[in-house]
Amino acid sequence: MSREISDPNPRKPSQGDNLSGRRKFLASLAAGAPLAGLAVAASAEEKQLNAKLAADKKAKVDTVSSASKKFNWTTLKERKGKSPNGIIGDVLLSRIIMGGNLIGGWAHARDLIYVSKLVKAYHTRIKIFETLRLGEACGVNAIIINPVMFDIMKDYWKNGGGKKMQFISDCASGELLTQIKKSIDAGASSCYIQGGIADNMVKSGQFDRISKALELIRKSGQPAGIGGHKLATIEACVDKGLIPDYWMKTLHQHSYWSARPKQQHDNIWCEKPKETIEYMEKRPEPWIAFKVLAAGALRPKTAFKYAFESGADFICVGMYDFQVVEDVNLVVDLFKGKKKQKPTRRRAWHG
User: Fold this and answer.
1) What is the distance between the alpha carbons of residues 297 and 256, in angstroms, rounded to a whole number?
2) 344 in the Ramachandran plot: left (φ > 0), alpha (ψ -120 to 50) or beta?
3) Domain boundaries, the chain
4) Which residue has the higher pLDDT, 44 or 133?
5) Going by DSSP bridges, is the β-strand pair 85-88/91-94 parallel, antiparallel, or unpaired?
6) What are the pLDDT digits (tens) for 41-69?
């Protein structure tokens, strides 16, 4: 059942808070209403886009609609169920975990320099609360965040009305051991070595630091993870006997236009998906796959199915509020039946 989500700390509206007026304005634009006093002429880009859309429609190609089409999203009333769960150590986790990059402003928008600022501006305090509460309503009980976001999580727990959302820390905002201690003190349910950091530590041979990090996390009673964008990071840690309680490893297909391993510019995060799948099939530790949408380049329905059938036990997905219900519905569909039958795959389930 849908429920109203409101600000737990009401305040006087400011110029930027006139949501109803702004929504009416945007709705008028979506309906194609011209702005009063302005002569609206199609630009060359708009003409090209309209021509492409017309050609795709004639060819029955599914495309992203133009701004003249109404923007609809799946609401709580259309929720098919709650996310199935798994377990890592003693921590119960939803199979779909929220990614914190969008809230933190790390959009991975290739060479579009304004997008990170845009998504950070979108995620106001109230919007973050709304998104997290939507996640909870859909059975999502964890988000992976950077230590710079600890204050907003504490605020959410205290003032946002959330009860079940826990966080996993990537420990990536300074000296590693210091950030692990900070994460534990802030209430993290688990900590892991962020993928880029682990990649660099392995490349420079800092296996002793990785070992100390795992030891410190486990000393607190938490599951300890190792991340990696590169398969070589996982392989090297295994070769050195550094076995975490779970892996955070990227996984996505290359079936999108900007997937160019030899021309990397914030455009690809799993260079060897086939090799990753084959290697992880032999690993008995739980696997949280991230970047499964290639930062928005892949359709969730296809990408989620690919990730779970390829061996991922959990997926970490960055979601705007208007995507939460739809994404969870896709996971619910994959785990069908009253007994929540798991997707078929070659790799055994771990976690």
Assistant:
1) 6
2) beta
3) 18-74, 79-334
4) 133
5) antiparallel
6) 555 655 665 676 676 566 554 444 444 45
